[in-house]
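Note to self: the last two entries modelled the partners one at a time, which told us nothing about the interface. This time every component goes in together.
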Amino acid sequence: MNDDRAPSLGFGLGARPVHYESLLDEGRVAVDWLEALTENYLGLGGQPLRFLERLRERYPIVLHGVSLSIGSADPLNIEYLRDVRALADRIEASWISDHLCWTGVDGINLHDLLPVPFTETALAHIASRISQTQEILGRQLLIENVSSYVEFDAADMPEQEFLAELARRSDCLLLLDVNNVYVSSVNHGFEPRAYLNGLPSERVQQIHLAGHSRQGALLIDTHDAPICEAVWDLYAHAVDRFGSVSTMIERDDNIPALGDLLDELDHARAIAASIRSKAA
Amino acid sequence: MSSATDLLELQRAFQERVLGGDPIESNRGQDIRIGIYANAYRLRLLEALAHNFPMLEQYLHGDEFVRIGRDYLADHPSTAISVRDVGAQLADWLSDHCAGEPWLGEFARFEWALANAFDARDSEVLPLERVSAIAADDWARMTFAFTPATQRLTLHTNAPQLYRAVAHDEVAPRAHELDTSCEWLIWRRETAAQYRSLTELEALAFDALFNGGTFGDACEVMFDHSAGDQIAVHAAAFLKRWLEDELIAAHAIDSRS
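The predicted structure of the combined assembly is written out below.
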């Protein structure tokens, strides 16, 4: 297919309430765009929405959801999708993303991003649901790979092949979480660069970077630490393979001062510039 | 796995193990891995509950809040889209399970109402001048729509005083039941949640309008409560305050009467 990805927004951050005031500061803040967590503003008003609207006056904003549950056997929540669309329209979101996961069945929400089995059956099920979701949202959806701690015996294909075929069948775009690839590669023993090489470069519209923690032999996707060297290396490979892609840092716990995250963001800028200059 | 039914069964089995909290002490690799999801589930939801009820958490101190939170979550697995709503049934649950300490359920109900006022959907606020300009003949037939942040509570304990003490970092008074119930109004002005108690008369008038009645209906219930020729003046004063406090979103003239 042709590469019809949106032009890169540059280097962004997850909008977290603790940084709202700093992000709205009069002086120049070296952040090109923000990612807002959809559920924090959905169906709500008052101060949360007012902050989001003020942030939107200064930055492009993308919406990142955690409740779509695209891989669940439960029916899609149409009301939720309509609310997401209304919010996206209201703040003129650049795009909307959610995860390749399920969050619960039988009406229960475990509020976690649970792995799907990489089977032909799940592929057909999820591709059809993404198509329906995109129709309701009136735009292409970005689907993100999640970190996982279990694998299902029933898998018919590796995750990257599942994602590539999913994007092809449903015509969706991809949000590549480089940290999640690394965490899962350690937990399941696969080669992370081979994973990236298996993704269609014309579909990768956004990149996530984050930190993780270790629990015994496993890595846990905690978003509570600086990005580690191995993830920076993998990011360099991602830039080499996917080109100039909107990149951002997610930090959800032990959130440092904005300046510390801006330093990390500068590091991402430097890596991307270095790879691009080599390619030129 | 060959069918959608198999996907459902696989997810049900996985979910059951996460909710059941399979022992992470197991030496089997897959058990340890599912235990990560089970532990994360409990930690995440307890954290969400503490975020929903920061004052109740402080009032109960950490350990007791965690014990209550675990028991509540075992009875009420989340069905909410957002973790913000995980505690939606905590007040009712506390009223049932801690009936000997009725202020706990009312504390949760009060704090939950304030949280709802804080981030309720935005709406128009009806300016006082718009009501002042209404012809005198139409006043009795006026009805009002209240802002989505506006809520009414009837409480039977001193839970709001307990809440206020915790919120202001003061020593909490002794928790107790009241001889007569107390009426509370909760709303949002600008971006801040507000609360105050109501006299019996103001509560009667407010509820008449809040439940869709006309201004005439409100005057009637007030008159039934305490007959007097100043009722309409009192009612107009109440209405003025509710308008100034930004409780009212819109008005209409009831065409039925």
